[in-house]
Amino acid sequence: MHTTTLKATNRNDTGKGAARRLRADGKLPSIAYGKGHDAQPLSVDRAALRGILTSERGRNHIISLEVEGGETYNVMVKDYLVHPVSRGLLHADFVRIEGDSPVVCEIPFTTTGKAAGVQAGGTLLTNMRSIKVRTTPTNIPTVIEHDVSGLGVDDVLKVKDLALPEGVQALLPPDRKLAMVAPPRVSGKAQAGEEGAAAEGEEAAAEG
């Protein structure tokens, strides 16, 4: 299992004032918790954690948390808080990973190929940017991809159509729509022209 090391320090002072002082020093107030373990207030390097969160795996990294003067254990980022204006990290929650017990995570979803319906003038509409899955820490995919080349106009891609890696279970209803090819849009003028032509045809038929 690939892990990324992150150093942490036990945090004794709590409260807004202490948190502000930590952030001013380049540290991030955080907490680690897990089943059978007491919540552990910590501080970590803010830039180091941002580097992890903005990397390819994002919050799906398995992090080896090295607590100064304490134990080292594996965690994942459960949640984090950012400033609404500066977008700087304000706080992070870590959840312990117990061996190879299953975890729930959000995996980016993307399509590949060009749908047949798009080549016919349709538009590919994607409803989901990520898919929640359950799998083991050693089996977390970086991305879930699906080739949509075979989708024609009005065809729909559903969760049940995905070829997920072995051991990865989607936590969405099988019939949830992920993408579809919408039919070509008809402009108002073109539609009016078609309706006019149809009307003239009906009048000609009536006169005949």
Structure description:
The structure is a single chain. The protein is an alpha+beta fold. It folds into two domains: 4-99, Ribosomal Protein L25, Chain P (Beta Barrel), CATH 2.40.240; 104-182, Beta Complex (RNA Polymerase Alpha Subunit, Chain A, domain 2). The protein is built from four helices and 13 strands. The protein has helices at residues 16-24, 46-53, 116-119, 188-207; strands at residues 4-10, 27-34, 37-45, 63-67, 72-82, 89-96, 103-112, 123-126, 130-135, 144-147, 156-158, 169-170, 177-182. The N and C termini lie far apart (80 Å).
Fold topology:
Layout: E1 4-10, H1 16-24, E2 27-34, E3 37-45, H2 46-53, E4 63-67, E5 72-82, E6 89-96, E7 103-112, H3 116-119, E8 123-126, E9 130-135, E10 144-147, E11 156-158, E12 169-170, E13 177-182, H4 188-207
Could you write a compact summary of the structure shown?
The chain has 208 residues and is α+β, with helices and mostly antiparallel strands. The protein is built from four helices and 13 strands.
CATH topology of the largest domain: Ribosomal Protein L25, Chain P
CATH class category label of the largest domain: Mainly Beta
Q: Helical content, roughly?
A: 10-25%
**Euclidean distance between termini CA atoms:** 80 Å
Shape: elongated
Q: Count the E strands.
A: 13
Give the overall pLDDT as a whole number: 89
Number of helices: 4
Number of domains: 2
CATH superfamily of the largest domain: Ribosomal Protein L25, Chain P
- The fraction of residues assigned to DSSP E strands is 35-45%
Assigned CATH architecture of the largest domain: Beta Barrel
Largest sheet: 6 strands, mixed, barrel
**Rg on CA atoms, Å:** 26 Å
